[in-house]
Amino acid sequence: MEQENVERVSAQLLEVLDDEGGKDAVAELVRQWATLDKLQNRYEQYREKHGDEKAVDQKNEAQQHVREAFDPFLPHSTRV
Q1: Are the CB atoms for 33 and 73 separated by under 8 Å?
Q2: Cα 18 to the chain's mean position, in Å?
Q3: Three-state secondary structure readout of the chain
Q4: Integer Cα distance of 74 and 55 in angstroms
Q5: Global pTM?
Q6: CA atoms of 22 and 29, how far apart (whole Å)
Q7: Residue 58 in contact with residue 50, Cβ under 8 Å?
Q8: How far apart are CA 22 and CA 26, in angstroms?
Q9: What confidence category does residue 79 fall into, taking pLDDT thresholds of 50, 70 and 90?
């Protein structure tokens, strides 16, 4: 259902946008949306495996790995 909504709204946006930058942004949104399930699964796996982790170093390392999966989805995020 969500994918159908994204496709419908994306098609509407492409109809009304008259600049290439806007159309590129819509295409990027659709591309990123297609990876949402993968990201959700990766995050759930992280929570199941490390949610109760007491060792800070291990939890931090696991958080860094899960964050790497999100980096392409959030290209403007900054790494600290």
Answers
A1: no
A2: 26
A3: CHHHHHHHHHHHHHHHCCCHHHHHHHHHHHHHHCCHHHHHHHHHHHHHHHCCCCCHHHHHHHHHHHHHHHCCCCCCCCCC
A4: 28
A5: 0.58
A6: 11
A7: yes
A8: 6
A9: low
